[in-house]
Design a protein that fits this description.
The chain is of the alpha+beta class. The chain has four helices and four strands, in the order ββααβααβ. Strands 1, 2, 3 and 4 form a four-stranded antiparallel beta sheet that branches.
């Protein structure tokens, strides 16, 4: 089995965003909403532990640094960041009304915050990044990868 996910909340490259950053506020609200509903958005940090608790063996973790936005000096990471930004803006647009609605926010209030977050991202006011985590393991007793050719041998 394999899980892949971005670790939330995001971190930031220097300079750190101001405390009144719309994205910083948005992240805190989304984490709060997830906790309130019992659907934690911070679970990716615990995937390895959860795999092992579920009885999986040979559990592996790989982490990838992914900037959100084309702010990184490295050309490849700048391109990756531009793609991640497009993806992340769609995430913000799609989940915010429901997540903040759980906290009593109206659609209008959510729309205003989404616009502020989009503006902050698109104007390059912040330099967020995430660790993208990939965790995989196998059920005990299942054949290890590469053993397929030995099936049926005595």
């Amino acid at each position: 089995m394999e899980f892949q996910d971005a670790e939330l909340p995001f971190d930031f490259a220097d300079p750190q965003p101001p405390e009144d950053s719309p994205f910083v506020r948005w992240q805190k609200l989304v984490v709060e909403s997830g906790e309130k509903s019992g659907r934690l958005v911070t679970t990716a940090r615990r995937y390895k532990e959860l795999f092992e608790q579920a009885g999986f063996v040979d559990v592996h973790v790989e982490r990838f640094f992914i900037p959100t936005g084309p702010w990184h000096e490295d050309k490849r990471l700048r391109m990756l960041g531009a793609c991640q930004l497009e993806n992340w803006l769609e995430v913000v647009d799609s989940i915010t009304p429901r997540m903040l609605g759980r906290l009593g926010w109206t659609i209008e209030e959510s729309t205003v915050l989404v616009a502020q977050v989009r503006d902050e991202f698109l104007k390059g006011k912040i330099k967020p990044y995430c660790d993208f985590v990939c965790v995989w393991g196998r059920k005990p007793g299942s054949r290890a990868e590469g053993d397929e050719g030995n099936a049926g041998e005595a």
